[in-house]
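Quick check before the chapter quiz. The format below is the same one you will see on the exam, so make sure you can read both the input and the output lines.
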Amino acid sequence: MLMNVMDDNFKTDILDYSGVSLVDFWAPWCAPCRMLGPIIEELAADYGDNAQVAKLNVDDNQDTARQYGVMSIPTMVIFKDGEEVDRLVGVMPKEQIAERLDKWIA
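Here is the expected output.
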């Protein structure tokens, strides 16, 4: 299930989560982000209980975007047990994102 996270629930939903999370930092005006959107939705459905997939709107949640040094969007950050373990920038094929995500799922 695709989650929407914000500044006020990022710690609880992502950093305190025991397991793997993929967070898509995006904005509604960003054309590449809109291209990536359906891929993120598919990944959320594909991974189910194996990993949580979330989106964070950088316009509405600038504190978290700044905290993680997100300079360009889309940026996808993979967290494991609340720690950043990988980062992908730009639009890429679903298979490539899945391959990077799979590395962190035990």
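If your answer matched, good. Helices lie at 10-15, 31-47, 62-67, 94-102.
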